[in-house]
Amino acid sequence: MAHDCIPGPATRATIYLQPRRQSSLSTQLRTKTVALQRYLHLIKWADTSLCPACGQQDETVYHFILECPAYEEPRRRLGQAVGRAKMTMDHLLAKKNTFPKLSKFIHETKRFEDAFGDVRDAGRADGQNRENMAAVKT
Question: Looking at the 3D structure of the chain, how many domains does it have?
Answer without folding.
Answer: 1
